[in-house]
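Step 1: inspect the first sequence and its tokens.
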Amino acid sequence: MQFTDAAPIAGVRLTRDGYAVAEVRAARTGIQQYAGSEVGRPDLAVVNVYRPPESVFAADSMASYGFKPVTINHPAEGVTADSWKDLAVGVVGGDVVRDGGFIKVPLALMDAAAIKAVQDGTREISMGYVCDLAFEDGVTPEGEPYQAIQRDIRINHLALVPKGRAGPHCRVGDERHVADAKADPATAKAKLKAAIALHAKHMNGSAPTTGKAGEKSQRAMMDLMEEALAALSGDSARGGMGSMDAHPRQALRSTGDRLMTLKTITVDGLPVETTDAGAAAINLLRDKLTQAAGAMETANTNHSTALAAKDADLAKKDAEIADLQSKVQNLDALVAERSTVVSKAKALDAKVVTDGKSNAEIKRAVLGDAAKDKSDAYVDAAFDLKTADIKTPDPLRQIIADGQNKGGVNAASIRDAARLASLN
């Protein structure tokens, strides 16, 4: 089955010849949503498709990224030798590496129109590929349900698009300039505390440090350290550090063609590629982690106090989770109520204006003089009585009907309608 999939472009640099080059996160693991019609299941409104790490990072799949053409938007058919001349505006390089849960590739744009499109805001990328799609229900290790799973992913092209399915982590040139950067001490402190806590778990054995689980846990700690450093300096979270599994190499700075040699240091058993300045910052954070681990070890001598603190923290987290769940439920109820009010108001008066108006204002507009100088409670009761026999229309059916009247129905409108229908 043929797919198109997207993600944003970082660190764009113009060469002396006017070409644009960058390293981008081209794809990711995890759940991505498709309309059922996109994946051959028109009976389903939305399908959660799982891209497991073993499929995304398979050696033959990663190799298929190398030297593929770059296009503006997705062509109707895959790019071939016969269509390359008409469609290609650049090329993907061959240095394809894993970057945490993403795949990172170098790309070069040679076409002036494509370069201008990126400069004007077309900064997300979308991979065009084919894969084997198996419809089977399951749950990811993170607890997310899915209805289909991708295997044997084979890349055909990389497209520049306004918005991609892989989200804003896969963009062209999305790092902030130093002049616009603002430090965020509060975020840095929170990230550092989280990294310290995870490091302490590595030290006391409550979190894994070996095997795939250990690699994932230590990568999570490194991500927190990088984000803390970024918040302190007001820079991009990965602006100064290479991926932990990238090979040592020389990097071109975004200002000019000056070469900058990267160095590799070891953090918690993992090699990290970075600059001298990045190494100094990591060492500073590592010293703070060591000091914090010592303080935590001293605190743990009082076993009963530690247990009480842990119980209190768990109770706090449970309360926070319950509060968030309550907020989500309240939001769903508000959305459902809004949908009902608007639908019934439109049924009474198709010309009533609902945009930018509260539910009470919409009800008063429909009731007219009958609601003048009346209390909100009176208006609610009058509106309910007047619309008691009106059935709320099916949002999915309505959006399809509206789309046909206006000349078409697309996958996005069907997805939106399905989500709205699920709230009613």
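Step 2: inspect the second sequence and its tokens, then contrast the two.
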Amino acid sequence: MKSEKPFLAMNLIPTGLGASFGGYAGDGAPVTNLLASACDLLIAHPNALNAANFLEKRENVLYVEGYGIDRFVEEDWGLRRVRSNRIGLLIDCAAEKLLPSLLNAANATRAHAGIEISGFELTKEPVGAKVLRGVKGNFQGEIANPDTLLQAAKRLVDGGAEAIAIACPIDLAGFDDEGYASGNGPDPIGGIEAILSHLVVSEFGIPAAHAPADLPWLPEGIVEPRLAAEACGTTYLPCILLGLARAPRFVLPSQRKHFDLFADDLDILVAPYGCFGGPPMLACQKRKIDMIAVRENSSVLSVTPESLGMSVLIASTYFEAAGMLLALKEGLSFDSLRRPIPALPRP
């Protein structure tokens, strides 16, 4: 008999760490969709899926911003699935010269995908988003003027926006590392993108995602396949519009309805083997939620489950992780799927 409760998994690939799967331009989509095929529902965050003009995800993949994921696993917020969101487009005034291409991208997405965009707002002043290099080889960032970002977001929310798509130019001054461009280093804008979206989500409690207004530093010619989505578009806006169009909304525990999803509905989390120090993994450990560590997804970090005293399932590949999810969903013992089947222990 099929359980009435959906089998809910989460696939996390932390941003800006050069993960070999999901650390580039939406190259985490195939493994996310593979895992989702073994689940009823799967939560994933935007940066593993966003690919400039492309967003390829199964219908059962829930597009949830990273701060919202943190609040979800901490039991502060739940997720409510929706048919559609009215999206407000927030553009940094420093990108005003790019306005025609950004609005063309928004209108193309409206015409092709049928999404609803309530309107757009320019910030009153430049946001001042800047990339910084982290001490572990990752990338972080800072915002010079967060208030102007939040003020523009508020105008959109007051106008009826249910989700916010953010487009800012990003200062890459001093960035001379070609690792990312060659597929051998972390995404330089991943950290600052997370800061921008976290700021809006934490302030207004609605879905948000960021797309860079432009990336002038990408090399010309044929690029590494995981970066190709960024090299073939004039803007990077369509992917976040497509993701936000049906992103789950956040609800408080006091607003919970029977169809909402909360942390106690989460069956399992999947993450790269060396990326287990984040809030979602620590929260799952505290709440005794199962986790799978995928060895093949390497990054600049090496925070392993063992180093934190965590007991998790280990998968060599995402192929193996998908099999584990399917077995759990179907209620099959792992022992029954291995040979030899171990003898029963005596009490």
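Step 3: confirm your contrast with the notes below.
The domain at 86-234 is CATH 3.40.50 (Rossmann fold). The first strand starts at residue 8 and ends at 11.
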